[in-house]
Design brief:
- By secondary structure, the protein is of the alpha/beta class.
- It folds into two domains: 201 residues, Periplasmic binding protein-like II (D-Maltodextrin-Binding Protein, domain 2); 216 residues, Periplasmic binding protein-like II (D-Maltodextrin-Binding Protein, domain 2), CATH 3.40.190.
- The protein is built from 18 helices and 16 strands.
- A four-stranded mixed beta sheet has the order 2-1-3-15. Strands 7-10-6-13 form a four-stranded mixed beta sheet.
- Helix 10 packs across helix 11.
- Pfam families: SBP_bac_8.
Length: 449
């Protein structure tokens, strides 16, 4: 509730400061917007919206007024509160970005079907898989404006010290079996520090169970009883229980700042939040070198990686001018030159075939060194990895959050138990074997309830 209050107060303040562009008609259309692109840094989407307002918007008598920039979890809660007219909630925005999981909570009949405003030629310009993700019950309610995937990010400066002392190599980061083994080695080498964080355990199991030939979501809920789930679980759990794999809450970008972790799997857009220096507990700082790698795989698995990213929704208005204005903006932001400017500035992937081809046929056009590394890593995956969108089923968002919290809580407790028993003199491998079995059973039982 406190987070919602802060969210809505922010909206009230921003409403007074935005949407004051020069009027070009006697009756311009103003569309309010909430979005998630840049809640912790300067927003690349706000830059594009300013450009739209000064060009196409000015020409068409349309003003996009951004009244909230937040994260995907906060925007879900706020949208649902507003859609349900909960006490203290502010009115729904005209436009917002979100994952498809919120569509049914808001009501499909309340959302604009973009299909009615796109010609067949315009629809065919989008990457098929990206457009298909926004179709629910035959209605195109989410227009793709940017997509992302997941990569492995590394603080190479500290890793190189670890490698020099232990003889490990960066090649061991490319497969999960060796990566999780590195976590344990790093924990011992560093005196108890965590090396690696997976921002989304749910994503990890979704893509790796699939890559191993299984199916993580079955009959509308996670299936934790398959051989493929166990194969993905055991090496990951060993690293978490021994130490070295972070099971704490929050994003790796926060721990990256203080070198509490030196590597993580996260969204391509997470590159925005990875600083080029770290601040240690004694308040000293050190510049670091960052490296980016393709998403790791299991040695005997097909390479699969997540397809993620919010899309653009519009509330259906009785004023048809608003619906047409939303469509004009949606088309503008996904035109090749605008889409490339937006996604390259924010670490996302373009959503039309021609923009996608233009980017990956000439990565050298990207001047920023970190962005160049990022798209180079994506390019290594493109064509050989399968891209897996998040499955949509009843209460999928709630199921994802519950799984994440359950897995982290159980593995954190298992790590504490492991350390306690080892300090008492118990045999480490015997304790590890017991905790691997018991933690797996606990997670299976908790998800089944």
């Amino acid at each position: 509730m406190k987070k919602l209050c802060i969210f809505f107060l922010t909206i009230i303040l921003l409403v007074g400061m935005t949407g004051c562009g020069n009027k070009v008609t006697n009756d311009p259309i103003t569309l309010t917007m909430w979005h998630v692109y840049g809640s912790q840094t300067e927003s690349p989407l706000n830059v594009m919206i300013d450009e739209f307002n000064q060009t196409k918007g000015k020409e068409s008598g349309i003003v996009i007024s951004v009244v909230s920039v937040t994260n995907s979890t906060a925007i879900d809660d706020a949208l649902i509160a507003s859609a349900n007219n909960e006490p203290g909630a502010v009115p729904m925005p005209d436009l917002f970005t979100a994952y498809p999981r919120v569509a049914e909570e808001i009501g499909l009949d309340r959302l604009l079907d973009w299909s009615g405003y796109l010609s067949e030629e315009e629809r065919s310009a989008y990457v098929d898989e990206f457009l298909a993700e926004g179709v629910i019950d035959g209605r195109l309610v989410m227009l793709p404006i940017a997509k992302s995937t997941e990569l492995l990010f590394l603080n190479k400066t500290i890793f190189d010290r670890f490698a020099a002392d232990t003889g490990v190599s960066e090649e061991e980061l490319l497969h999960f079996e060796s990566l999780f083994a590195l976590c344990c080695q790093y924990y011992d080498w560093s005196g108890g520090a965590e090396m690696f964080q997976i921002n989304d355990f749910y994503h990890y199991f979704l893509v790796n169970v699939s890559g191993l030939g299984g199916q993580f979501i079955r009959n509308g809920k996670p299936d934790l009883c398959s051989a493929e789930f166990e194969q993905a679980y055991l090496p990951m759990a060993r690293a978490a229980i021994h130490g070295g794999l972070c099971t704490g809450d929050g994003y790796a970008s926060d721990r990256w700042k203080t070198a509490e972790v030196i590597s993580n799997i996260g969204s391509t857009a997470g590159m925005l939040y990875l600083r080029d220096y770290v601040t240690y507990q004694d308040n000293t700082t050190e510049e670091i070198e960052t490296a980016v790698y393709p998403y790791p795989t299991f040695s005997d698995a097909s390479p699969v990686v997540i397809q993620r990213g919010t899309g653009l929704f519009s509330m259906k208005s009785e004023d048809e001018r608003k619906n047409r204005a939303a469509a004009i903006f949606g088309k503008w932001i996904t035109q090749k030159e605008h889409n490339l400017d937006f996604v390259i500035a924010s670490g996302y992937l373009p959503v039309t075939e021609n923009a996608f081809s233009a980017l990956f046929s000439n990565i050298d056009m990207i001047e920023n060194e970190k962005s160049h590394m990022l798209y180079g890593a994506v390019d290594q995956m493109y064509g050989s990895y399968s891209f897996c969108p998040l499955p949509l089923y009843d209460a999928s968002g709630e199921a994802q959050s519950r799984f994440e919290e359950t897995a982290k809580s159980i593995l954190s407790a298992a790590h504490r138990d492991y350390i306690s028993r080892i300090e008492r003199g118990d045999d480490p491998e015997t304790v590890m074997s017991e905790l691997l079995d018991s933690s797996l059973s606990e997670i299976q039982e908790a998800v089944e309830r």
